[in-house]
Amino acid sequence: MDLELLKQLNIERAARRAAVLVTDLDNGSGRLVLEGESISGELGSTVERGFRSGKSATVEADGRSYFLNVHVPPARLVVIGAVHISQALAPMARIAGLDIRVIDPRTAFASQERFSNVELLAEWPDEVLEQQPLDAYTALAAVTHDPKIDDFPLKAALDAGCFYVGALGSRKTHAKRVERLKELGLSDDQISRIASPIGLDIGAASPREIAVAILAEIIDALRKRQVTDR
Prior knowledge:
The protein is built from 8 helices and 10 strands. By secondary structure, it is an alpha/beta fold.
């Protein structure tokens, strides 16, 4: 591998940015393609599919053979609220391959007894996210029903371009949330990205069923996310 390409790749990986090392198998030449970079022809479509799937592969495009070495940051899920839904969602998310973190300043909810083997932070979300910022490969689910806890991380997630942003609550509750987020400076387009009511519409009733609906919606958003320009 070209050492300069390897250096560039390591910089992108350290910053949690997706990149594909494209090697022309006919002549051995290589190039690093960053997510959102425009490539013409069949190769461009093939590389975009690689970003979406996260899987390396040998491909045929534009009459040539290439190996796509795909490096996509591991998807993370940040849950705001250590509630019953979160207790069910945490083990499901791990099974699906998501790194998960639960944040809730309410120590009565955020206890290791309720969340064993889960990264649990009994702190205010704004304090945590200042030190551990969100990014495009993070999903955020706000499930406390408390604006004092949910609103800041929702704004942070939309500002960071998280691939999924969901919030628990009825349509009436969400309408009030929309007004608060507008007061915080968010645009209508940004706010429209919030999935609320949260989760796919499967008629979920119990916390476990709601957790299934949320996880399904997150996976759907991850695999169908828009590959935006840098």
